[in-house]
Amino acid sequence: MYAWGFEWLGFPVATAILTMVIGTLFNASLPAAGISGVVMGIFLWYAFDSLLDVTLPLGAWLN
Length: 63
Fold this sequence. Notes:
The structure is a single chain. By secondary structure, the chain is an all-alpha fold. 70% of the residues lie in helices and 0% in strands. It has three helices and no strands. It has helices at 2-8, 11-25, 30-51. The chain starts with a helix and ends in a 12-residue tail after the last helix. The model has no long low-confidence stretch (mean pLDDT 87).
């Protein structure tokens, strides 16, 4: 699911959703999982794209 979402939704959104799901599996509250998902999606995209110079897809819906 993550690989499909990675291409279709883009790295930030797919990573945010994956982080939210993993957070809820570890019994995090829904707001905490949502906030951590958004932060991780944005931070990791920025780290890979700007700091490491690895181009990641933003998703088919943004192109």
